Amino acid sequence: MAARAAETGATIVRDAGLHSGTSLAAKGLPGDYVTDVDLASEAAISAYLREATPDIPVHGEEGGGETGDQYWVVDPLDGTTNFAHGFPAVGVSVALVERGLPIAGSVCAPFLGTTYVAGRGEGCWAHRGDAEPVRLKVSDRPASRAVVATGFPFRRKARLLQGYLITMTAALARFEDLRRPGAASLDLAWVAEGVFDGFFELALGPWDVAAGGLLIQEAGGVVTDWDGGPAWMEGDIMAGPVAIHAELLSLAIR
Fold first, then answer.
1. CB atoms near residue 169 (< 10 Å)
2. Fold of 2-135
3. Going by C-beta distance under 8 Å and a sequence separation of 6 or more, which residues neighbour residue 17?
């Protein structure tokens, strides 16, 4: 159901198209934007979920909504700046959260033709068109060859940037290279797929990380907050295969 919901939003995003000339409005923090496509995608996803699971509330990035012991959390267009600039690293993320942790989730990449799906205890899978789903596993590359994804804490620069830059510099020295595509849900999906070897970022929202974090866990990886604890749904997240995750934790400074 998470996959069908994500694909419902992805259809809206795909049909709008990159460089679609949609209205781009600031949400209050530098670099944080919303378009009419974000809003249309969230409305379509929310309508689908409310019809399919009327007893489970829906919490969206743009419209908010109830949470509780069980709820859906939705990012209707992750990578809004990418979308507005014509860069196809854009995701739609939907997860079912129970007692604070995701138990089902999906990330759909509408311009890349891939939908990632995971359920607690059911593994992580990539779906591409009519091909058979592929079960995913995190990478086993050593730290010296690892390419690790990250994102800059643009929402909280004054408070977080100094510590983040120390960690980022140490990571660049420790790993082969870093990447910053600009859509956390896809970054996490690519870690689950073994494209990237790890991910770290601060001050994300639960809609950014819920589905992608579950993908990594079900692909055999580890997901924690920057202290190595379980509070990664609060937005400070480090993730990857066991060995790379341990390296990331050793570098973490906030």
1. 13
2. Fructose-1,6-Bisphosphatase; Chain A, domain 1 (3.30.540)
3. none
Q: Which two tokens stand for residue 208?
A: 């950014």
Query: What is the per-residue pLDDT across 147-203, written as a single tens digit (0 to 9) for each?
Result: 999 999 877 788 899 999 999 999 999 999 999 999 999 999 999 999 999 999 999
* CB atoms near residue 99 (< 10 Å): 8
Each domain of the chain, given as residue ranges in start order, spans 2-135, 143-251
pLDDT at 141 over 90: yes
The tens digit of pLDDT for each residue in 12-38 reads 999 999 876 666 666 656 566 788 999
List Cβ neighbours of 90 (8 Å cut-off, separation of 6 or more).
Answer: 13, 18, 77, 78, 79, 82, 83, 109, 110, 111, 183, 186
Q: Which of these, 200, 240, 206, lies nearest to 223 by C-alpha position?
A: 240
Q: Are the CB atoms for 45 and 94 separated by under 8 Å?
A: yes
Choose the CATH number for 143-251 among 3.60.21.10, 3.40.50.720, 3.40.190.80, 1.10.10.10: 3.40.190.80
pLDDT(60) > 80: yes
